[in-house]
Amino acid sequence: MKLWGGRFEKNTDSLVEDFHSSISFDQRLYKQDIQGSIAHARMLGSIGILTSKETKTIIRALQELLREIQVGQVKFEIGAEDIHLNIEKLLTGKIGDLGKKLHTARSRNDQVALDLRLFLREEIDVTKDLLLKLIRTLLKLSEEHLETWMPGYTHLQKAQPITLAHHFMAYVQMFLRDLGRLRDTRKRLNLSPLGSGAMAGTTFPLQREEVAQELGFDGITQNSLDGVSDRDFALEFLAAVSIIMMHLSRLCEELILWSSSEFQFIVMDDGYSTGSSIMPQKKNPDVAELVRGKTGRVYGDLIALLTVMKGLPLAYNKDMQEDKERVFDAVDTVQKSLLVVEPMLCTMKVRSEIMALGAKGGFTNATDLADYLAKKGVPFRDAHEIVGRIVLYCSKRNLGLEDLPLEKYQELAPVFEADLFEDLTIEKCVRSRQVIGGPAPEAVMKAIEFSRKELNQLGW
Q1: What is the Cα–Cα distance from 183 to 185, expressed in whole angstroms?
Q2: Residues contacting 61, CB < 8 A, separation 6+
Q3: DSSP 8-state assignment for residue 437
Q4: How many domains does the chain have?
Q5: Is 93 strand, coil or helix?
Q6: pLDDT at residue 155 above 60?
């Protein structure tokens, strides 16, 4: 008989039994469910609902059950529907009717809200650590490539010369913001909903703060309806990891492009590449492509839960059972992606000489030529037009700006002098951009030091 079956005259249909059950996936919450149950039992003891002996018996049995599950000695039942009822049934099987007292002043509604918060709190910490490792790797690579010249792009067209360090540091900024979003999400979810009951609290004199403190929460939720029906914390987590995946996908897209024969900027390590079943010459960046593809999967998790929640009246509705698979999938996907991207970056070979050659093509020094004229007193808009005409002239003759004779420059603008060629070298173009946030090696090194200091101040 179902633990809730007192008012029913017939059994659940076999089709509904399978459709309704969530134990196939929410068994993943067994540790959190037992952790919450132990805290709840201890609190019931402190307010006299359980005797001291009963409390100790229940807690000891729950701890024993936790160990049994961890070593694979427990088989969950579909008929018991979910992890909460499975744990309760297993507990009752161990200690008899005493196990039935544990659910006093508690509903599965506030149980699942508690379990999911505990689960996400742990997984945010794991994700944060993986993200930190990636950031530190990017900082190390940036320091190694302070003078690896390369073309910067806008519209995927060569724009201005930068360094690989400057490029990597852009991703450091993205991932630092991701850390901030995870930190903020963790702060907002770290409130205990236990004590909300099904939706209207309970008549028992619960010590909610006592339980919250034992479980490491910063406080308790302030409304019982919201306590059981809120999934903002899950949505916020899904949004945060969706942005992380977007940043990973952008990075991977560039690695895919850079490893192509058209770019040849990098060579992916064999351990992070695959071949073709028919073309023996192929070396495919499949790992980077998979991360790019899995980004859409995490987006789907976010959109799915947003869609589930958008039309739900207060308080709990069975629709909300759909939250866990989306959260579990996103957790697994983002963590696996972070795990594989970091060593992929560490093992790739950077072809600095090819990057430097790429920086010289495509008139990437044209802006510096316009700046040269502006420094000579020519209004920038006029300088822009003059350099545009020079670029057009050179492009028709397959010349670079550095190849054009001084006499031709002076025909177009008499203020040009022989020193213009100093400003056209790729190295000078990059080294001159020492503004904070710019690509000059000194500026990038300051950015690296600033980022490391920021991590240290946050205790990371």
Answers
A1: 5
A2: 91, 94, 95, 99
A3: T
A4: 3
A5: helix
A6: yes
Task: Output the pTM of the full model.
Answer: 0.94
Q: How many Cα atoms within 13 Å fall on the side-chain side of residue 368?
A: 25
Same domain, 400 and 338: no
CA 135 to chain centre: 12
Dihedral (CA of 423, 429, 434, 440) sign: negative
Contacts of 24 (CB under 8 A, 6+ apart): 78
- Residue 311 bridge partners (DSSP): none
Beta bridge partners, 163, equal 149
- Beta-strand relationship, 266-267 and 219-220: unpaired
Peptide bond before 315: cis, by omega within 30 degrees of 0? yes
Domain end position, chosen among 104, 133, 167: 104
pLDDT tier at 3, thresholds 50, 70, 90: low
157 φ, ψ to 5°? -115, 145
Q: Which of the four pLDDT bands, split at 50, 70 and 90, describes residue 300? A: very high
The last residue of a domain, from among 357, 381, 413 = 357
CATH code for the domain of 76? 1.10.275.10
Give the Cα separation of 64 and 34 in Å (integer).
Answer: 10
Q: Which domain holds residue 86?
A: 12-104
Q: Which residues are catalytic?
A: 155, 276
Alpha carbon distance 255, 247 (integer Å): 13
In the numeric block, the tokens 């972070």 are attached to: 338
Q: E strands within 166-286?
A: 191-192, 219-220, 266-267
